[in-house]
Amino acid sequence: MTTVAYLGPRGTFTEQAVLDFTAAGHIPADANLVTVTSPGAALDLVRSGDADLACVALESSVDGPVTQTFDALATGEPLQILREHDVPVAFSILIRPGTQLEDIRSIATHPVAEAQIRGWLAEHLPEVGFVPATSNGAAAAAVAAGEADAAAAPARAGVLNDLEPLAEQVADIKDARTRFVLVGRPQSPPARTGHDRTCVVLRVPNQPASLVMALMELATRRVDMSRIESRPTRERAGTYDFHVEIVGHLEDAAVAEALAGLHRYCDKVRYLGSWPQEGWIGGVSGLEGSVPPDYASSREWVRELRRGGRNG
Amino acid sequence: MTTVAYLGPRGTFTEQAVLDFTAAGHIPADANLVTVTSPGAALDLVRSGDADLACVALESSVDGPVTQTFDALATGEPLQILREHDVPVAFSILIRPGTQLEDIRSIATHPVAEAQIRGWLAEHLPEVGFVPATSNGAAAAAVAAGEADAAAAPARAGVLNDLEPLAEQVADIKDARTRFVLVGRPQSPPARTGHDRTCVVLRVPNQPASLVMALMELATRRVDMSRIESRPTRERAGTYDFHVEIVGHLEDAAVAEALAGLHRYCDKVRYLGSWPQEGWIGGVSGLEGSVPPDYASSREWVRELRRGGRNG
């Protein structure tokens, strides 16, 4: 039976992603679900073989990359991203039945959630005290336990904790989404769809302009990037690895050639997977639907030259 | 009188940075200190004129950039980074006098602190429960109030809250440091020292390879980068600005020429300041002490050609 590890408790956005991945057939309906307390812990269960898949948050459309996840993917035994899914991030303000707006003195939220509803709170609950919680699910549980008067959490956390919504779809920035990914052990990536992403971690040589030289491996092949972050190596202050997300699939000839070029040029390249794009399409260039060029005709031209055939 | 805003309460690492900046003469000894609850709030007090300077965390040698700070610098009225200072990040485990190790059931910490002492806790307090706090100073205050048995916080937070250290210099990663900066309203930057940093936020054109083209403005002038991050614009999912840190000063000819090139090429450039390097020196190339080249002789050659002088 397939075992899937995710950040719990139940009622988090991560659990919503697990449910959606299951509905889409990427997690078997009879899978054994295991909750853990951090993205890194979920990935470690896959590394140890105690889980087959981990469902972890990768990126927020508002707050950017989830660095805990990226750092955990970049070190330790290699793992591979297999699928992505975007979950709309809107909060319900959850209360115990019967609580009135004027009775609310404290609100439990995860700090990331608090940042996303600050404007709403300032308008509707200007005097409320903020009780930090370790997850959105834990925030709802704290209200059920009487430790706070209200929680900002996914609607489902209210159902699970017998709470009522005082307000729904609360979010300062409209259409905020969080991207979750399914991660497994190294394997052949899912089939190319023509709208795919590839992610790698680069350690560039100890030379001036080395990052630009590495990125030229992509640019000369017209392979578009969708994100780049420098992350501390944790080995020495001031040394960084680069997390680069590419538009395209390992089976795209241009991407394959660019990755081989990066492997030649960089001191270290870690492949984090190729998988179908599902949610928002972030190309650095902002060009939606940017796809790697087709190499067939240029390669055929070279083959013709080798055969002594037509030169044109 | 100078007013300085910083993330409180007293006893945070940010307060330590304020004390150190004061000892170094960058904050007047008689300054009026105002505590706020986030880096963004500190910066907004400078924008509104209610404070002259904000002291905010910019980057951790372990966890990378403080995205709250960068996002707050990238939007709103422009502000300017004037000085940096690195604070060693080591925690004291603080208890009420008389508490024994075996009595500790709960420990209050800021979530970022918890991540940095997880190994120590697993070894010495494997069964302890984690009470999230909004700051290291608040964690110590929670112990003083009896809301937790211990706190992980700077030593000074123990002094301020009448707590005793059970252990000192606790940190899973040795030599971890956090970089703080002093931020003011736009002004001429502090004088060039020859070992300086410059920071800009770029919005690159909507074209393939545009990020590489922008970075070539630096590379062709042998100007080294020390960090790069894509950050969501928050205007549309999948669109990003780039935060780039450069080795050198606005008064370096090479940096000035590169910045002018970026201004020509990019859709938008926000200058975040030039200031003396103090702490760890992060060049992407890993070359410590990398400095922009001197342009004097090449410019003199061009002037000579214009005068019809020697060509060599």
Automatic annotation (TrEMBL), chains A, B:
Enzyme Commission number: 4.2.1.51
Cellular compartments per GO CC: cytoplasm
Molecular functions (GO terms): prephenate dehydratase activity
Signal peptide coordinates: none
PROSITE patterns attached to this UniProt entry: ACT, PREPHENATE_DEHYDR_2, PREPHENATE_DEHYDR_3
Alphabetical list of InterPro entries matching this protein: ACT-like_dom_sf (IPR045865), ACT_dom (IPR002912), Chor_mutase/pphenate_deHydtase (IPR008242), Preph_deHydtase (IPR001086), Preph_deHydtase_CS (IPR018528)
Site (Essential for prephenate dehydratase activity): T178
Prephenate dehydratase domain sequence ranges: 3-185
GO biological process: L-phenylalanine biosynthetic process
Bilayer-crossing regions: none
Record keyword Isomerase present: no
Entry keywords, A to Z: Amino-acid biosynthesis, Aromatic amino acid biosynthesis, Lyase, Phenylalanine biosynthesis
Pfam families according to UniProt: PDT
Residue stretches making up the ACT domain: 199-274
Source superkingdom: Bacteria
Pathway: Amino-acid biosynthesis; L-phenylalanine biosynthesis; phenylpyruvate from prephenate: step 1/1
Recorded catalytic activity of this chain's protein: prephenate + H(+) = 3-phenylpyruvate + CO2 + H2O
PANTHER family: PREPHENATE DEHYDRATASE P PROTEIN, PREPHENATE DEHYDRATASE-RELATED
NCBIfam families, A to Z: PRK11898.1
Protein name: Prephenate dehydratase
Organism: Corynebacterium terpenotabidum Y-11
Lineage: Bacteria, Bacillati, Actinomycetota, Actinomycetes, Mycobacteriales
Encoding gene per record: pheA
